[in-house]
Amino acid sequence: MQSEFVPVPKEFKAHVIGKRGSVIREIRQKSGAQIASTSTEEEGFTTSGNAQQIAHAKRLILQKVVSC
After folding, report:
1. In the predicted model, is pLDDT for residue 40 greater than 80?
2. Is 63 helix (H, G, I), strand (E, B) or coil?
3. pLDDT band at residue 17 using 50, 70 and 90 as cut-offs
4. How many other C-beta atoms lie within 10 A of the C-beta of residue 36?
5. Based on the number of CB atoms within 10 Å of its own CB, is 49 exposed (0-12), middle (13-18) or buried (19 or more)?
6. For the CA atoms of the chain, what is the radius of gyration?
7. What pLDDT is stored for residue 33 in this prediction?
8. Which of 15, 56, 55, 57 is nearest to 36 (CA)?
9. Is 65 exposed, middle or buried (CB count within 10 Å of its CB: 0-12, 13-18, 19+)?
10. Do 27 and 60 contact (CB within 8 A), yes or no?
11. How far apart are the C-alpha atoms of 44 and 56, rounded to whole Å?
12. Which residues pair with residue 5 across a beta bridge?
């Protein structure tokens, strides 16, 4: 299992997480990756899984940031 940090500015983290975690939960389901953020002060998310899962999660996270 690998992990990679995906930088996301603090002001966009709420959009990636979604109401009651709905968006981040959907990204986890679609990608198969584990996604975590240790605090609201951290600018991004740590994704874990195999290379394909991480790449898919990263793509979905960044798409959400761009659409904000």
Report:
1. no
2. helix
3. very high
4. 12
5. buried
6. 11
7. 98
8. 57
9. middle
10. yes
11. 16
12. 46
As a whole number, mean pLDDT of residues 42-55 equals: 96
CB 3 within 8 A of CB 38: no
Structure tokens at 68: 């904000």
Helices (H), the chain: 10-17, 22-31, 51-66
pTM above 0.85, yes or no: yes
Cβ-based neighbours of 14, under 8 Å, separated by 6 or more? none
Structure-block tokens of residue 56: 């898919």
Structure tokens at 64: 């959400």
Cβ atoms of 23 and 12 within 8 Å: the answer is no
Per-residue CA distances from 59 to 8, 41, 64, 65 (Å): 12, 22, 9, 10
